[in-house]
Amino acid sequence: MLKTSDAAIADVAEYMANLGSRARTAASEIARASTAQKNAALQAIAREIDARLDPVMEANAADLQAGEKRGLDAPLLDRLELTPARIDAMIDGLLQVANLDDPVGLISELKYRPSGIQVGRMRVPLGVIGIIYESRPNVTCEAASLCLKAGNATILRGGSEAINSNRAIADCIVHGLREAGLSPDVVQVVGTTDREAVGKLISMPEYVDVIVPRGGKGLIERISRDARVPVIKHLDGNCHVYIDQHADLNKALSITINAKTQRYGTCNTLESLLVAKSIADRVLPELAGQFSEHGVELRGCAATLKILPDAIPATEQDWEEEYLAPILSIKIVQDLDEAIGHINKYSSQHTDAIITENYDSAQRFIREVDSSSVMVNASTRFADGFEYGLGAEIGISTDKLHARGPVGLEGLTSQKYIVLGDGNLRQ
After folding, report:
1. Neighbouring C-beta atoms of residue 103, cutoff 10 Å
2. What pLDDT sits at residue 9?
3. Which of 11, 56, 115, 216 has CA atoms 20 to 30 A from the CA of 274?
C-alpha cells in the first residue's frame, strides 16, 4: 500500500473505503493492546527510523528538489526539510511518548452514590483518526506515535510535496508495528496524491471518528466546511507578545527576538508585537536594530513610525496576518486594557504572551486573554506538545470543545461513565 502510485488507483473512493474498513478493524485491535505492546511498537519504530536514516534523507532530498522546481517558497521548504536534528527530534519524540503514562483505561472521579453504586469515568480511545497535513513530514511520525499510544488507528494523508518522505517514514512505522506484533493497518498512509482522497476521507463517518487537519488556513477552512466527521482544528497562528510598562527590558528584548526569529514558518511564531506607550521609545530602537540583523521587515502603526521611521506603515490587514515569514507588525498601545482588547479582537486564539514584572498585570492577562495558550515572560515558541511534556502533539486546537491547545494523548481519548454495583436495584 505504501508504494501505491496514482496510476495504480483506478477508483479513489473504493481505495479510501478499503483503507477505512481496514482502519476500523485495526482500531479494535489497538484499543485492547497492552501498554507494553504499544510502547514496544513505539521503540521499534524509533529504531527503524535511526537504522533507515539514509533512505529517509534521500527521500526527503527528492521532495525538496521537486519542491524547488515547483517554486515552493522558503517557509514551505523549511517545513518540508528533514534535517538530522529534526529526525533526531522525531526519534526522541517517539521514545518520550513511550515513556508517558497510558491514558487508556484510566478511571477517575469514582464515587459512591446514596443508592450504593459507584460512578466514575474511564478514558477510552476515539477510534479511527484521519489526519490531513501539508509539508511537514515529521507530522507522519508524531501523529502515528500519539494515535498509537492513545489506542487509536489512524489514516494519514500528507501533502503531495512530501510524498516520498512520508512513504519512507511510513515504511519504518509498518516495520515497527509488525515487530511488536500489531497490525500494520493501525497506521496507514494514503498512497495517492489525488485530491479526491481528502474529500472521501472527511466524508466517511462509518469508518472515521475524528479528522485533524494541519496546514494552511485554506486547507483547514475547506475541511471544516465540507467534513461529515467531527474536526479538531486551528485556522492560523496570529500570536502576540505584549511588552508591558512594567517589563524587564532585557527579558523583553530576548523573548521578543526569540519568539519571532527562532523559526519563521511555525504557528507559534510571534506575528504581532504590542508595546506600552510609556516604554516604547526605550525598547523599540533596540529591538529594531536586532531585527534588522535578522532581516525582519517591520510594519508599524503611526506612533511606531515616529520612533522607527524606516518601518513600513501597517494596514488593518497586518493586525490579522499570520506571516510565516520574517515580517512583524508593531502597535504601540496605551496600556494593558488596550493590549488585551487588541489581542482579543485580532488574535487567532492560539498563543499570546505578556512580558511584565507586575503580578496584577500578569494575572489579568492570564484571565482575560481568550487564547488556548497564555504566557507570562516566556517565548510563544514554547507552545507545542513536546515543550509542554506531551511527548508530541497531533496539532494545536483553538476550538473550545473537547480539546484546546496542544492536543496530546489525553486529547486523543474520550471518556465514558462506568457504574460498579453489587446487585443494586433502583427503588
Report:
1. 20
2. 67
3. 216
Round to whole Å and give the CA distance between 93 and 42.
Answer: 10
3-state SS track over the chain = CCCCCHHHCCCHHHHHHHHHHHHHHHHHHHHCCCHHHHHHHHHHHHHHHHHCHHHHHHHHHHHHHHHHHHCCCHHHHHHHCCCHHHHHHHHHHHHHHHHCCCCCCCEEEEEECCCCCEEEEEEEECCEEEEEECCCCHHHHHHHHHHHHCCCEEEEECCHHHHHHHHHHHHHHHHHHHHCCCCHHHEEECCCCCCHHHHHHCCCCCCCCEEEEECCHHHHHHHHHHCCCCECCCCCCCEEEEECCCCCHHHHHHHHHHHHHCCCCCCCCEEEEEEEHHHHHHHHHHHHHHHHHCCCEEEECHHHHHHCCCCEECCHHHHHCCCCCCEEEEEEECCHHHHHHHHHHHCCCCEEEEECCCHHHHHHHHHHCCCCEEEECCCHHHCCCCCCCCCCCCCEECCCCCCCEECCCHHHEEEEEEEECCCCCCC
Query: Please, what is the Cα angle at 325 between 404 and 84, to 5 degrees?
Result: 80
pLDDT-derived band at 419, boundaries 50, 70, 90: very high
Please, are residues 104 and 126 in contact by the beta-carbon 8 Å criterion? no
214 and 133 Cβ atoms separated by less than 8 Å:
yes
For residue 328, the tally of other CB atoms under 10 A from its CB is 28
pTM for this structure? 0.80
* Whether 307 contacts 275, CB under 8 Å: no
Are 393 and 408 spatial neighbours (Cβ–Cβ below 8 Å)?
Answer: yes
pLDDT for the residue 54: 94
The burial of 124, by beta-carbon neighbours within 10 Å (0-12 exposed, 13-18 middle, 19 or more buried), is given as middle
User: What is the rounded distance in angstroms from the CA atom of residue 373 to the CA atom of residue 124?
Assistant: 26
At 408 the pLDDT is 78
Cell of 399: 476550538
**Which residues touch 89 (CB under 8 Å, ≥6 apart)?**
138, 386
